[in-house]
Amino acid sequence: MYPWLSAPFLQLQALVRSGQLGHALLLKGGEGMGKGELAKELSRALLCQHTDVAPCEHCHACRLHAAGSHPDLHVIGGEERSIGIDAIRGLGQVLAESARLGHGKVAVIIGAERMTEAAANALLKTLEEPAGEATLVLTSSRPERLLPTIRSRCQQWLLPLPAPAMVLDWLAGEGLAGSQAALNLNQGSPLHTRDYLARGEDRQRQQLLEQFVALAGQPGPGIAALQSALLERPARLHWLHLLLQDALQLALEVQAPLRLDDAEPLSRRLSRLGPAALDTTLAALVELRHTLQPAAGRPLNAGLQLGLWLGRWTRPAVAYHQTTHSGDGFAG
């Protein structure tokens, strides 16, 4: 189990052992927290045949759970983009049946916010008329998208982001060199940060940010390579967003930690463009990112829109060079 889940699991385990756990729970928290892992461990405790020491890890139920073949554990959600009414209806029918091993049943819905409206209404009926010894465990990174009536019928458990030091220690144990900047880029999510580092994206980020800053003072052929890298993965625009925010913070002389502290030299160079130019660029970037989001629909020509934004990005630097001496640190 991930180290930041140990404390909430111990609390839930105590409720299982004392028989005080409700029939429906909602585990909520940011993406990449391991909520599914916590739900799995909780289901193991709920299905253990020795409740007072659950999970004992030795009984028949625990062995079946470890093998992934417990007949009274039902999990839906997975990688599906949405959870339909058929899946929820089927789950309700299964929960209405007697437990195969006679020690209750557990249903886990991963990413419950992905339920369709019809599926959510079907689940609400199950929550209003719970089966005998059945326990429902929902996980969600967007609990606000769930029906208020569903949330109100669940015991809600918020999983806060773990302390950066804990995550960095865990990453080191995984053989990955993490940093506060990498955590900030991934909104503090431990698992997203792990995946980001494992893909080697931290090195790519440094290169991309350097290309971006170089273009501010010397527009040229490099814009094509940068545009290609951003178009390949529009999420990388977030890297530029944080860099520009840091530059604006420095330009305004705001005393606060930088989001990308490992790119401070680059932020300081950009800060010389001044607050007005940086604010304008940031506003245009926010609009561009919204346009490129999958939920907004694929724009007719994403490459053109990205290219226009990058083209405009060169203008503040040109104006800067026209009003300052050549030793400004942007050229070359």
Automatic annotation (TrEMBL):
Its EC number is 2.7.7.7. GO terms for cellular component: DNA polymerase III complex. One of its GO terms (biological process) is DNA-templated DNA replication. It catalyses: DNA(n) + a 2'-deoxyribonucleoside 5'-triphosphate = DNA(n+1) + diphosphate. Residues 203-314 form the DNA polymerase III delta subunit C-terminal domain. It comes from the Bacteria. Signal peptide: none annotated. InterPro entries: DNA_pol3_clamp-load_cplx_C, DNA_pol_HolB, DNA_pol_III_delta_C, DNA_Rep/Repair_Clamp_Loader, P-loop_NTPase. Keywords: DNA replication, DNA-directed DNA polymerase, Nucleotidyltransferase, Transferase. GO terms for molecular function: 3'-5' exonuclease activity; DNA binding; DNA-directed DNA polymerase activity. This is DNA polymerase III subunit delta'. It comes from Zobellella denitrificans.
